[in-house]
Amino acid sequence: MKALFERYLGQRIGLNYHTAYHIDEATLALAAETFFAARGERDGVTHYYPYSAVIHVMEKEGGVEVGGLFVHKHQWPLVVKVGHVVDVGPVV
Hints:
Number of strands: 6
Distance between the termini: 42 Å
Number of helices: 1
Helix content: under 10%
Largest sheet: 6 strands, mixed
Shape: globular
Order of helices and strands: HEEEEEE
Radius of gyration: 14 Å
Mean pLDDT: 92
Structural class: mainly beta
């Protein structure tokens, strides 16, 4: 996984750092042995994820197109989906 991420260091990628179901733009800042880091364009925060949190990676020359109905489509050379902890309130 590290070798794949190293190819995109310093580049803008698609990453679901804010919510589980929405891909936003981030700049890949670090590709370490067991984790990667990306700075979110939306919030300016550097997010760190272990590779074990990666659920899906998409790569395409010319860019992976992301977007859907009623949403402006974006393209990034690499799109990464990471797992999120779902907050659930108590069932009463």
